[in-house]
Amino acid sequence: MDVKTLTYLFVGGSFALYIAIAIWSRAASTREFYVAGGHVHPIANGMATAADWMSAASFISMAGIIAFMGYDGSVYLMGWTGGYVLLALLLAPYLRKFGQFTVPDFIGTRYYSHTARVVAVVSLVLVSFTYVAGQMRGVGIVFSQFLDVDIATGVVIGMAVVFMYAVLGGMKGITYTQVAQYCVLIFAYLVPAIFISILITGNPVPQLGLGATVADGSGLSVLEKLDRTLVELGFGAYTDGVKSKLDVFAITMALMIGTAGLPHVIVRFFTVPNVADARRSAGYALVFIALLYTTAPAVGAFARLNFIDTVQDTAYTEVDSWFRSWEAIGLIGWLDKNADGRIQYGPGAPFAGPPRFAPEPGPAGERQVTNPPTAAANEVYVDRDIMVLANPEIAALPAWVVALVAAGGVAAALSTAAGLLLVISTSVSHDLIKNTFARNISDRQELLYARVAAAFAVGVAGYLGINPPGFVAEVVAFAFGLAAASLFPAIVMGIFSTRMNRHGAVWGMVAGLAFTFCYIAWFKFVAPDTNNSAHWWFGISPEGIGALGAVLNFAVAATVNRFTAPPPEGIRALVEGIRVPRGAATSTTAGH
What we know:
mainly alpha
């Protein structure tokens, strides 16, 4: 069977599985909708957490970033992996012991303030919608390439599937769906990586293949060959970085603490029976996550080598079909600047912006790019988000492997999108409606509001997927920065400081969120022409500004706290109780 037929089978089969699980595990109460009843096994929760964690940015975009940024792309590996460890060890057990349903629930109760709860909801919704935009774009890319539909139609299909299992099953349905999605995505990621590692180095273990000798008789290792090849083409060496140390530190820190503040990951630790199981599930999840994250550097390096070997100085009429298929949806573009009919790849943008194609083919049969050319000799535009998805085709792997990767990409995007949409809906229904504006509604009414909010969130996510503000990992990095600057400091101070009061927490969250949002909006959307290190504060890029926003949050909170009344004695006792090991399996709550 051809790739298209196999993709329909693999993706369609996975969708049928997800929907069947949602119907089987339909939530019957708010506790099942919010935290899956609180009785998920640690291994299952570890798989679900890994799937929730490894979004389209991890599956689709991270290796693409590493492929094109080389050494500088390591900030995503260090930040996201280190952030999960920070979350698992520093925050998750204490939040589980506290026993609330949501992050705003914790903040509202800990800081004895409806205002703090509302600010946390606003922060959470902003972070989650920023994050989910990247996931839906990933869904659209996969569908547009492998199922011959446009990106908008692909996003709508993804919305429909997420609606089925997120709105029907809530956290209960999402949890068991994510277990299945983890199995799909990790198999889809590792299989082509193993194939390609064998083809390039003869070593079946990609993590070892990255440091192995290339099986072409040159005697060079993979990284040595990649360095030499890129330098010959005019690029910098793959193993050299161009970012400043301060910016690398800031991006890594923003991703780490942003990870620890991500609400859709934190809520996963409320789904297990007790604190001990929360710790176990965090350990299992780290193992499951490591399978992909330790493979990503090899996938990125292999993809860049294969891309150059296949494209460089190849006649357009002889280039493999994968190039034209990605060209057809606008994610690859070629402008024949020297009119020789051959593809020349090098540094610099080939033309202004993403490709715009003329309706008629050019003299070499290419899709003519109508954008103004730039002075760079490079003739090729390639969207970095396609590298993992295109890698099996570039390496000429069997059709079933290509289809498997498509199913894995969809699974990664949908698993995280569902988790994000759920925390949005629970924050609206539980924190805003039930605990703020309509306290007397019944459990059944609250469940209805949660489902309505989830349906609305799916619609907004679909719009953002069709009209995304950037490529997948870039958008996700912004979400991590916003979480780092708003939620993380409030959570940390709420757990480890008995003196922090509601005034400090609220003003800290507002200051950190406002500063980070404005910085990102200015340099990425209002004045993108000034998007270079000469205009950045202290040379920190928008991707890393969340670290500075977090420092501002802590500073403002500490200053305001110093000049305002301390929290009530009951809240101080509550904070002390969260950190006491005895009785860890029981839930601790406080009044408002």
